[in-house]
Amino acid sequence: MNRDNQPFFDVLDEKALPEGGMAIVKVKGRRIAVIRRSGNLHAIDNDCSHVGGYLGQGTLEGNNVVCPLHQMAFDLETGKAVNRTGGYSVAVHEVKVENGRIWVR
Fold first, then answer.
1. 66-83 pLDDT, tens per residue?
2. Cβ–Cβ contacts within 10 Å for residue 21, how many?
3. If you ran DSSP here, which 8-state letter would residue 21 be given?
4. Is 2 part of a structural domain of the chain?
5. 54 close to 24: Cβ distance less than 8 angstroms
6. Count of structural domains within the chain
7. Could you tell me the CATH number of the domain that includes residue 46?
8. CA distance to 26, 86, 96, 104, per residue, from 7 (Å)
9. Using CA of residue 78, residue 95, residue 68, residue 62, what is the dihedral sign?
10. Residue 51's pLDDT band (boundaries 50, 70, 90)?
11. Which of 13, 43, 51, 60 is the 20 to 30 A CA-CA neighbour of 84?
12. What residues contact 35, with CB distance under 8 A and at least 6 apart?
C-alpha cells in the first residue's frame, strides 16, 4: 500500500518520549509502538507477529526492539525479525516531528 497519500496523525508530545523511551499509541484502531533510539524516532506495529506481545513494552538492544513474551527481536528500520527464522516481521510507519508533536502515518 502506498502511504504517500495517507495523512499523518498527531500521537504524542515530543517531550513525553525521552531517549530510549517507548510509547504505545493508537492510529485508526491500530496499536503502534513509537520509539526514540539514538536520537531517532521509529514507529512500528506494536503487536509482535510471532505471539502478539506488545513490543512497546519490550526492551531495546542495539537497533532492535525485543518482544517481552518470547524475546523475538525486530529491526526498528525494517521491521524484520533478526533472531528467528520463519519470515516474521512487523509494519514500519513513517514518523515525523512538527511543532513539538510526534506524528505517525
1. 999 999 999 999 999 999
2. 14
3. -
4. no
5. yes
6. 1
7. 2.102.10.10
8. 14, 32, 12, 8
9. positive
10. confident
11. 43
12. 21, 22, 41, 42, 43, 44, 56, 60, 65, 76
> What amino acid occupies position 78?
T
Pair 34, 23: CB distance under 8 Å:
yes
DSSP 59-90: EEETTEEE-TTT--EEETTT-BBSS-SS--B-
Q: Is residue 13 part of a domain?
A: yes
Asked whether residue 88 is assigned to any structural domain, the reply reads yes
Q: Identify whether 90 is part of a domain.
A: yes
Residue 10 pLDDT level (bands cut at 50, 70, 90)? very high
Contact criterion met (CB below 8 Å) for 92 and 79 = yes
Q: Which three cell numbers stand for residue 96?
A: 515525523
Secondary structure tally for the chain: helices H, strands E: 0, 10
